[in-house]
Amino acid sequence: MDESRDWGDERDEFRPRRWGRWGCAAAIVTLVVAVVAFFWLERRHEQRQLAQMIDPLGLIHPPQASSDAPRRQFSESRGALGEFLGVDACRDCHAERVESFAETAHFRTSQVATRDNVAGSFERGRDGYQSIDEALRFVMDAEDGLRQTAVVSHEGEAFEYSAPFDVVLGTAKSAQSFLFWRESHLYQLPLSYSAQLDSWTKSPGYPAGLAIFSRAVSSGCLRCHVTFVAEREDAWNSFDRETAIWGISCERCHGPGRDHVAYHQRVGKVGDLAADPIVNLEALPIERQLEICAQCHAGTGEFLRPPFAYRPGEELAGFIRQEPQEEQSLVVHSTNQLARLRLSKCFLSSAAMTCSTCHDVHRHESSDRQLASKKCRQCHQVEDCPPAVRLGSRGRENCIDCHLPTARDQQADLATADAVVYPLMRDHRVAVYPEIAARFESADTSADE
Predict the structure, then answer these.
(1) Is the pLDDT of residue 377 over 50?
(2) Nearest-angstrom CA–CA distance, 86 and 243
(3) Within a 10 A sphere around the Cβ of 432, how many other Cβ atoms?
(4) Domain ranges within the chain, ordered by starting residue
(5) H or E segment at 414?
């Protein structure tokens, strides 16, 4: 007994206690992982059961109240209800500018869905979409409002689930996606529209072979498609729909219009610009001007304040912690234009270049290469570009396809049962691309198109 009591020295006695602590930590980690796995499996089981209530194969996934997580809490109020007036309040004094702006992609980046602004076909024979799973197909119906219906065929029976086209995101130039309401909650429809394919496709990021009606739309996503919408407290995809100001309009760049309108009602149409509450972009420092566009064109990030709390002229870093520039610059994507521009020699050598140097956001200028090239020639001489000299008028009138080429957005797959495409995006890194220039010079059409 004495030998057993004296076995080992202090280090020997310390070792079991040390490994005991590690063992405890490992047990806790294992327990946490097990609990997370349990709830994840339970959630999947519940989803499968709910799906099978509609179709026996579990291919249709309807919205679930349990999936609408409580929204993140911020110390400040989210509300700006009443500050935003909508574009009609601008029309009285700025009718010509409003009419011009109404034709832009910004203004039409979200709209209440109608037969006129949904690009996909509702004609019988062309209105369907066959999933990669032969049991699942979709039908578009415009007879009683616009609806998207998933149909699962199994053992001679058809099982259906339908949701309306309530909101359309985007224009028909590249692609459109669609949202629908369930009371105050907003969800994305499983099918989008691809202009390149001229057909319905699965929405980007959706798993193939399933009809997912349960993807909730957060305010973080919605803020780049609407001017304002009041958020509800019950869930992160819950909104007061009657407050929605669809599209990106004047107030997202110049600030809410309530105080501006009240000021001019008091002093008349001609007032003191310095006293006017509206934001004059030209009076802002260059970085503050860029940050107005950076809200949506400089990558995603972590919100430090409520999604609709930012006001033009504020420092954007106090509102959202965005991804580092180098992490945004790896590929062409629909939200990294400013990061790519900041890599350009044009931008780095200029002390005053902003997005509006090349873009007049008040006018529809998309795809007008001749107009864009004219802006290039304000700083660059055609004689300094040998390919442009050799190409003559075709070179002078199209700097864009050589120096801002298009590339496929690999993060936005649009797929049908037998095709997958990635939309073309304009790269905003202005540079000399010798291979693209050579291709353009030897062809009669634009590079990459």
Answers:
(1) yes
(2) 10
(3) 11
(4) 65-265+368-442
(5) strand 414-415
- Identity at 236, one-letter amino acid code: W
H or E segment and range at residue 267: helix 258-267
Q: How many alpha carbons lie under 13 Å from residue 141 in its C-beta half-sphere?
A: 15
Q: How many CB atoms lie within 10 A of CB 162?
A: 14
- As a whole number of angstroms, the distance between CA 281 and CA 443 comes to 41
Amino acid of residue 202: K
Buried b (16+ CB within 10 A) or exposed e, 263-295: bbeeeeeeeeeeeeebbeeeebeeebbbbbbbb
Q: How high is the pLDDT of residue 449?
A: 39
Please report, as a single letter, which amino acid is at residue 206. Y
CB contact at 8 A, 152 and 169: no
Nearest to 380 by CA among 404, 415, 360, 364: 404
Which class for 129: exposed (0-12), middle (13-18), buried (19 or more C-beta within 10 A)? buried
Rounded alpha-carbon distances, angstroms, from residue 197 to 174, 186, 189, 415: 10, 27, 18, 9
For 393-402, the pLDDT digits (tens) are 888 899 999 9
Radius of gyration of the chain (CA): 27
Helices then strands, each counted (H, E), the chain = 16, 20
Q: Identity (one letter) of the amino acid at 175?
A: A
- Contact between residue 150 and residue 211 where contact means Cβ atoms under 8 Å apart: yes
